[in-house]
Amino acid sequence: MLSDDAFKKIDREIAKYPADQKQSAVMAALAIAQDENGYLAQETIAAVADYLGMAPMAAFEVASFYNMYDLAPLGRYKLTVCTNLPCALSGGVDAAEYLKQKLGIAFNETTPDGLFTLKQGECLGACGDAPVLLMNNKRMCSFMTTEAIDQLLTELRADLRGQAT
Amino acid sequence: MSFQPILTAGLDPATGDATWHLDDYVKRGGYAALKKIFAENITPEAVIAEVKKSSLRGRGGAGFPSGLKWSFMPKAYAGAKYLCCNSDEGEPGTFKDRDLLRYNPHQVIEGMAIAAYAMGTERGYNYIHGEVWELYDRFEQALAEARAAGYIGQNILGSNFSFELFAHHGYGAYICGEETALLDSIEGKKGQPRYKPPFPASFGLYGKPTTINNTETFAAVPWIINNGGDKYLELGKPNNGGSKLFSVSGHVVRPGNYEVPMGLPFAELLKMAGGIRGGRRLKACIPGGSSAPVLPAEIVMECTMDYDSIAKAGSMLGSGAVIVMDESTCMVRALERLSYFYFEESCGQCTPCREGTGWLYRVVHRIEHGQGRPDDLDLLNSVTDNIMGRTICALGDAASLPVRSFIKHFAAEFEYHIEHKKCLVPPEVQKEGSKIYVRPSC
Ligand SMILES: Cc1cc2nc3c(=O)[nH]c(=O)nc-3n(C[C@H](O)[C@H](O)[C@H](O)COP(=O)(O)O)c2cc1C
Ligand code: SF4
Ligand code: FES
């Protein structure tokens, strides 16, 4: 369910906390598990809980409380666009609308080819760079004009073709 | 005398992503304060006294005097004590900690090491907003550099003081910026605020004495130790010491972070950010992050940027996030988006907040969409009356203050919406004003 490599990474997280506080590593462990599997299935959450010596329900509570965990499969690339007020004043909403139109989907939908999922985000802490979006939780994309959005979509599609060959 | 930046001294956003390493920081004079403490045998009490003298106030939102907070930590305590840095920057409009961690992570590490020495804490965590993942990675690298050089870890700089510091990441919950939610989150739980008292200084992380400060608060500490608390205080104005990093967003020509002395006139800050776009006029400003009451142009233009002046004008300096709105802004729509945010982010523990934030959002939403009722403004005010002061944490107030202040200062606009089922500001004007912003190349 999780690779040795993932468990090694989780071990590094556990080491940050006092020996009797393994549960503190649950957020990092779930993020590592999600990176590996694309989303968090019930069994994955249970495996993480088991490894950290906590009740599966306690790990599930964490996985469902924090917005960046995905509890169901989604597109290969999750694009989370910030539309909160500071961004909205500089085109955050327009950027989201442009993406919806380009991808032919609404928020919380995935393109039929399974490539892109679009999400509405709250403040990413990067409002000065508006419009901004977050790609797969890890990469902040700043100043997302329509040209920058086009470029990003092209790049991600090309990446995928590169991986396929 | 022209103002010399403290937090951002020697940093250039154009090259900043390459000059955050330990060597660069040391070249800029980094870790001198920590060295000075051990070289001159400065006692922990003397460090706290210096920070008190500086009148440094917490930069995370509440503005609590930092030296005083540090003095609450029990001195003779057998057992672990903890230090936490709050880098869970998620208050809409705030993006200053991001730049501090991006361009100068070692300054935060040094500030934390000094604070840890002052309070006798041997272990610390920096809680970093999950959305700025690249900076979490960077902070871990910076920690490795600092550890290898002996600035953190066992027997720092050959002294008998040890301090271990680690990074912990959030994963998308605004409420974890609230300090006790942050502690629960580090403990591996849902991030839900705790009742206070007990305060973290007596019952914090894992039930141990804990101090939590904002990233920018820690970042100011090395300078204070190097130059003295008096010098820091002099930079600003009485009771409002030092410099502050303001995140300016919204309808300005150059959104971004600006470090200025406390007490700078708002008009000057606006000018630094290039003024309002497209020759339009300022309409309103939220001077301290989305939770702070909005101020109309004529009031904010008279303010200086410090805790006392902004408080006197009826708002809060908060996190120092300055959200600028020009005349193309529909205030009902702006409030609708903020209300949605608090509804979405309420942790759900307290009924007034959980139910109230949803209620506020639905009522503002219906006003914006032409379905407002004549008594909706009274209803909104009464809902906020029933939230404020009746919740575990300040998110309830944070959701209420925007509603009350938007209605108070822009009542006519709300009433127009309710009566005419449409907006006072024509939709095409709004659209033009808030379209995708392409910065002028400079
Ligand atoms: C809902 C809510 C969100 C908060 N978010 C943050 C935050 O993102 N960063 C921060 O430093 N403080 C935040 N705070 C304030 C913290 O609770 C705390 O006062 C602060 O971290 C203390 O540090 P300081 O004294 O250095 O400001 C928040 C408070 C509330 C009620
Ligand atoms: S006020 Fe809201 S966010 Fe704060 S503890 Fe209560 S329900 Fe949670
Ligand atoms: S409001 Fe969009 S990043 Fe802050």
Describe the fold and architecture.
The longest helix of chain A is centred in the last third of the chain and has 19 residues, at 146-164. The mean pLDDT of chain A is 97. Chain A has two domains: 4-65, Arc Repressor Mutant, subunit A; 77-164, 3-Layer(aba) Sandwich (Glutaredoxin). Chain A is 48% helix and 11% strand. Chain A has 165 residues and is an alpha+beta fold. Chain A has a four-stranded mixed β-sheet with strand order 2-1-3-4, with helices on one face. Chain A has seven helices and four strands. In chain A, a hairpin with a 3-residue loop joins strand 3 (133-135) and strand 4 (139-141). The two termini of chain A are 26 Å apart. In chain A, helix 3 (42-52) crosses helix 4 (56-65). Chain A has helices at residues 4-14, 26-37, 42-52, 56-65, 85-88, 92-103, 146-164; strands at 77-82, 116-121, 133-135, 139-141. Chain B has 442 residues and is an alpha/beta fold. Chain B is built from 19 helices and eleven strands. Chain B has helices at residues 22-27, 32-39, 44-54, 66-71, 96-103, 105-119, 133-148, 179-186, 215-227, 229-235, 266-272, 297-300, 307-312, 331-345, 351-368, 376-387, 395-409, 411-420, 427-433; strands spanning 82-87, 123-128, 164-169, 210-214, 243-250, 256-261, 264-265, 282-286, 295-296, 304-305, 321-326. A five-stranded mixed β-sheet of chain B has the order 6-5-11-8-9, with helices on both faces. In chain B, strands 3-2-1-4 form a four-stranded parallel β-sheet, sandwiched between helices. In chain B, strands 7-10 form a two-stranded antiparallel ribbon. Chain B is globular and about 75 Å long. The model of chain B has no long low-confidence stretch (mean pLDDT 96). The interface between A and B is large, with 56 and 62 residues. Bound molecules: flavin mononucleotide (FMN), iron/sulfur cluster and FE2/S2 (inorganic) cluster.
